[in-house]
Amino acid sequence: PLSLSLCSSPSPMRAPLLAAAGAAMGGTGGPLARTIRAKLTAALQPSHLEVRDDSPRHGGPPGAETHFGVLVVSGLFAGLSPLQRHRLVHEALRAELAGPLHALQVTARTPEQWQSDPRNPPAPPCLGGSKKEKRRG
């Protein structure tokens, strides 16, 4: 899956790549992707933000926006534990997590962490099924 990156100030070399990625995805994603991006930008003032729609990998109907991954790089995360950072992301997306958003993978880093390792972990594999189904094992 292609992930679209929005940087507050993309380098001159990255700007064309970001524009190409956006065009390849047909703009900035669907309505939920745009809402996620807007709410995280407003709440966390990220220096780097990637919103990845993993929904097609999870067998929903075409156009469903239910599974996302986000990479948020924010100075607001300085001094916070990973759990506290995730809570900030979840708080910003509380309404979406209560409704249409079924699954959210969060990577939350400080600018210093991002600078030392600018990689986004891959999406976890889809295990299929439902929480209500019994798994064989």
From TrEMBL:
Residues 108-137 are annotated as: Disordered. It holds the Pfam family BolA. Residues 108-118 have a biased composition (Polar residues). GO terms for cellular component: mitochondrion. It comes from the Eukaryota. Belongs to the BolA/IbaG family. This is BOLA1 protein. It comes from Rhodinocichla rosea. The lineage of its organism: Eukaryota, Metazoa, Chordata, Craniata, Vertebrata. The gene is Bola1.
